[in-house]
Design brief:
With 499 residues, this protein is α/β, with parallel strands linked by helices. The mean pLDDT is 93.
C-alpha cells in the first residue's frame, strides 16, 4: 500500500502534461516533468544511501529542485525537514543535532560552515543552489524518471517542522501522512480549488502555509502555480490578471494596498484571496474589499495542527474572525484553570482535536504529554472566543511571541545571542506594532559601564541571526524595568516604545 500523499499528490500526475509551475522567467514545468525530476532526485538520494524513515534536512533556496525534494521524500518514505534558507550556521546547528538527519541539503556557499556540524552527527552534506546546480542534480539525467514508491501507513511520519511555541528550545513537530492529506483535502473541498485554478505562490516553502497548504492543495486539485521565488510586488501585480488564487500573509495585502496599480479591474479574474500565518487587521480586510471588491478569506492554523478553522468560501467572511472549524475537526474554547468549555462570547484557551493534529514533539515525550488534555485535545496556547454564529476570533497569544510578516519570532532566541555579546549585561526583546509587517522585534539593552557599542552589537547579531529576526532598533537603557521578583516587565517596555 503506497501512502495517501503518493496516491493523491503524485500518482494522478505521472503522465500529466498540464503546466504545474510557471517560473519567474515565464518558463514552465509540467506535472509530468516535475514528478520525473522528483523521481530522479529520489534515485540520486537512494544511491547515496537514503533509506525509508531517514531524516532529510532541506535548507536550500526556493526553486523547483527544492520543491522536488519534498516529493522525493514521499517517494522514498523519508522524513522531510525544511529549514529557513536564511538561517545562519549558528542557528542551523541546533536543528541538525536535534533531528539527527542522514542528509543535509544546502547551498554551496554554506557547505564549509555546515560540514563540521554534519560530520558530528554522521550526516551527508549535499549542495543545491538557487539555479538548480549542485551535487544533488549533478548527472541527474542518468537516473530513471520513475521511482517505485515506498509503502507508508497513514500514521507514519512524513515531515518534521520545528516550532518553539513561545519559550524554550525549538521543538520538532512530527506530522504524519494522514495529518497532511486529510487537511489538504478538506481545504480543496472547502475553498473549491480545481484544475482550472492558477495559484500565485510567493510564500517560502519551508513552513506549513507555503508548503503543505499551498502545494498539497494545488497538487490534489491539479492546479497550476505561479512559482515566485520571493516576495516581489511587481510579479504579483503582473500575475493577478491571469490567476485565480493568492495565498499570502497580511503583509502581502498591506503592500498590495500601498500599490496604486491595485484595482477592481486588475483583480477581476481572481476568485479567492486567502490570508493566514498572522492576524489580519480589520482595517486591511475592509480597505482591500473597498479597492478590489474581494473579501479576503482568513483562516487559522499552527505548525502542530495544520489548518483548524477557515472563513467559508460562499457564506459570510467576517473581518477579524478566522472562521469556523473545518470538517472533522473539533475546536473548543475552555477556561484554562478548570477546563470548563466556555459559551459564545467568553474568552479562553483554544483547544483542537482531529485528524490534522500532529503525532507529538520529537524526543520530547514529556512536552508532548503536557501539550494534550486527558481527552486528547491539543492545547494551542492561543486565546480566543466564538461568536453566536460559531465564528472563532483569536484574541491573544502567549505574550512573548512576535509575528512579523507571517514569521514567528521567539524573543528568547534573540536575547540569548545578544546576551552572549561581551559588552552586554542584559537585554529584553519584544515586539512593537508595524504597519507593514504587523510587528517587528525591538531590543532594549543594558551595556557594561561606559560601553555603548551598538554598532558592533548589531554586526554581531547580524552574523548570528536571520534578517527577519534581527531587532529593528537597539535601545541602550541604564536598567530594565523589573517587578519585585526580578522579572523583566516587557509590558512596560512595549508601552515605552510602541508609538
Amino acid at each position: 500500500m503506497s501512502s495517501l500523499l503518493y496516491k493523491n499528490l503524485i500518482k494522478p500526475h505521472l503522465y500529466n502534461e498540464k503546466i504545474f509551475l510557471i517560473h519567474d522567467d515565464d518558463t514552465t514545468t509540467s506535472y509530468k516533468d516535475f514528478i520525473c525530476l522528483a523521481s530522479q532526485i529520489a534515485h540520486q538520494l537512494s544511491e547515496l544511501g537514503l533509506s525509508a524513515e531517514d531524516c532529510l534536512i532541506v535548507k536550500s533556496p526556493k526553486c523547483k529542485e527544492t520543491l522536488a525534494l519534498y516529493i522525493a521524500s514521499i517517494l522514498t518514505g523519508s522524513i522531510y525537514l525544511p529549514l529557513n534558507s536564511s538561517y545562519t550556521p549558528t542557528e542551523t546547528e541546533y536543528f541538525i543535532k536535534d533531528s539527527n538527519p542522514s542528509f543535509v541539503i544546502c547551498e554551496e556557499s554554506e557547505s564549509d560552515a555546515l560540514k563540521v556540524i554534519c560530520e558530528e552527527v554522521n550526516a551527508k552534506l549535499i549542495t543545491l543552489n538557487s539555479d538548480g546546480t549542485g551535487d544533488l542534480t549533478k548527472d541527474i539525467n542518468l537516473f530513471p524518471e520513475y521511482y517505485t514508491p515506498i509503502n507508508k501507513d497513514s500514521d507514519d511520519l512524513c515531515a518534521l517542522l520545528y516550532t518553539s511555541g513561545t519559550t524554550g528550545k525549538a521543538k520538532g513537530a512530527m506530522l504524519t501522512h494522514q495529518n497532511l492529506f486529510s487537511n489538504a483535502k478538506e481545504l480543496v473541498d472547502l475553498w473549491e480549488i480545481t484544475g482550472q485554478d492558477t495559484l500565485i505562490h510567493s510564500l517560502p516553502i519551508f513552513h506549513t502555509h507555503g508548503l503543505f497548504v499551498a502545494i498539497n492543495t494545488s497538487m490534489i486539485a491539479g492546479s497550476s502555480i505561479r512559482f515566485i521565488e520571493g516576495f516581489n510586488i511587481d510579479y504579483i501585480i503582473n500575475s493577478l490578471n491571469n490567476s485565480t488564487l493568492l495565498m499570502g500573509v497580511p503583509t502581502f495585502y498591506t503592500r498590495l494596498l500601498n500599490d496604486e496599480r491595485l484595482s477592481k479591474e486588475l483583480t477581476k479574474n481572481m476568485r479567492l484571496f486567502i490570508s493566514g500565518s498572522a492576524p489580519l487587521l480589520r482595517e486591511t480586510h475592509e480597505n482591500f474589499e473597498k479597492i478590489t471588491g474581494h473579501k479576503i478569506l482568513e483562516r487559522y492554523g499552527m505548525t502542530e495542527t495544520n489548518m483548524n478553522t477557515s472563513n467559508p468560501y460562499k457564506e459570510e467572511r467576517k473581518a477579524g474572525s478566522v472562521g469556523k472549524p473545518l470538517k472533522n475537526i473539533t475546536v473548543r474554547v475552555v477556561n484554562s484553570e478548570n477546563e470548563k468549555v466556555l459559551k459564545s462570547g467568553e474568552i479562553g484557551m483554544i483547544q483542537v482535536k482531529g485528524p490534522n493534529i500532529f503525532k507529538g514533539y520529537l524526543n520530547m515525550p514529556d512536552k508532548t504529554q503536557e501539550s494534550f488534555t486527558k481527552d486528547g485535545f491539543f492545547i494551542s496556547g492561543d486565546l480566543g472566543s466564538f461568536d453566536e454564529d460559531g465564528y472563532l476570533s483569536i484574541t491573544g497569544r502567549n505574550k512573548d511571541l512576535i509575528i512579523s510578516g507571517g514569521y514567528n519570532i521567539y524573543p528568547k532566541e534573540i536575547e540569548d545571542i545578544i546576551n552572549s555579546f561581551d559588552k552586554v549585561i542584559e537585554c529584553a526583546v519584544f515586539g512593537i506594532n508595524d504597519k507593514d509587517l504587523g510587528e517587528v522585534p525591538i531590543a532594549a539593552v543594558v551595556m557594561k559601564q561606559n560601553e555603548n557599542d551598538t554598532l558592533n552589537l548589531k554586526g554581531y547579531v547580524k552574523k548570528n541571526l536571520a534578517k527577519y529576526k534581527q531587532p529593528k532598533e537597539f535601545y541602550c537603557l541604564e536598567q530594565l524595568p523589573k517587578n519585585t521578583m526580578g522579572k523583566i516587565q516587557k509590558n512596560i517596555l512595549k508601552e515605552m516604545f510602541n508609538s
